[in-house]
């Protein structure tokens, strides 16, 4: 029996933040905006010398577009204090009229993080810090006059929250381990894995962890968005990467429909091959509407 939480199906793109590819990045984003896609997700690796700063890029994307929603896919917590993440997120949300969501990760590439002045954390420390950060961020989006928090990694000592976001920003965690998957169910609004690291063989068990956490917190598992980062080439001449995604439009439609109605995912973010706006146009014009129709049909 398949897993389907019945959520609306949405689509996005994952453009490169590389400085050398900026013209193509804008072409990808423009194609997503014209094509009626929903999201732009941008990776956040501040130590990568070829990358623009993700938060500066997200602000510019929001200024250049009118309808696309934007999120870090996912924000690098060890190099960005959660109080500042909260302030930046609320500011971008206000400036864009409510078009910002927050993808948040525990960190990786610890040598590079440490080289840039960040902390080197063990897996447990990174998980603990991520959960503390969610609390800190929510406190700083609250309507309380002042907030305090005393954690192992972060603290607030009577800071006054503000400005409030323009809408209830979702916090989507990019995590894979059992403990943090349960935490997604307890405290987060969404989950952001990539197909390469969370294939269909792993998804049922991962959803079960999230749903277990949701049940413990008295939450409906269907309230949690499940975002899937996808890579591959759309087209009849596409080669095979072994992941079952490279291929013609019909194959993409079939696979993404399966991800939605059999494997519980609801939001699909394409990393277009070679930053190709033509791939995004195909995704928006042919794949996305066909998937929505196939999912409606499957759900009856």
What attributes does this structure have?
300 residues, alpha/beta, nine-stranded parallel β-sheet, 9 helices, 11 strands
How would you characterize the overall build of this protein?
This protein has 300 residues and is α/β, with parallel strands linked by helices. The chain contains 9 helices and 11 strands. The strands form 2 sheets. The chain has a 9-stranded parallel β-sheet with strand order 3-2-1-11-10-9-8-5-4, covered by helices on one side. A two-stranded antiparallel ribbon has the order 6-7. Strand 8, helix 6 and strand 9 form a beta-alpha-beta unit. Helix 1 packs parallel to helix 9, helix 3 packs across helix 5 and helix 8 (249-261) crosses helix 9 (277-299). The longest helix is centred in the last third of the chain and has 23 residues, at 277-299. The model has no long low-confidence stretch (mean pLDDT 96).
SSE inventory with pairings:
Elements: E1 10-13, H1 22-35, E2 39-42, H2 54-64, E3 69-72, E4 75-76, H3 82-95, E5 102-105, H4 110-115, H5 123-140, E6 147-150, E7 155-159, E8 171-173, H6 178-187, E9 190-191, H7 203-216, E10 225-232, H8 249-261, E11 267-272, H9 277-299
Parallel strand pairs: 1-2, 1-11, 2-3, 4-5, 5-8, 8-9, 9-10, 10-11
Antiparallel strand pairs: 6-7
Helix pairs in contact: 1-9, 3-5, 6-7, 8-9
- The side-by-side strand order for the widest beta sheet comes to 3-2-1-11-10-9-8-5-4
Contiguous uncertain segments of 5+ residues = none
Helical coverage, percent range: 40-55%
Percentage of residues in DSSP E strands: 15-25%
Shape: globular
Q: Rounded to an integer, what's the Rg over CA atoms?
A: 19 Å
Query: What class would the helix/strand composition place it in?
Result: alpha/beta
Note the total helix count: 9
Largest sheet: 9 strands, parallel
- H/E element order: EHEHEEHEHHEEEHEHEHEH
Number of strands: 11
Tell me, rounded to a whole number, the average pLDDT. 96
* Spatial separation of the terminal alpha carbons: 16 Å
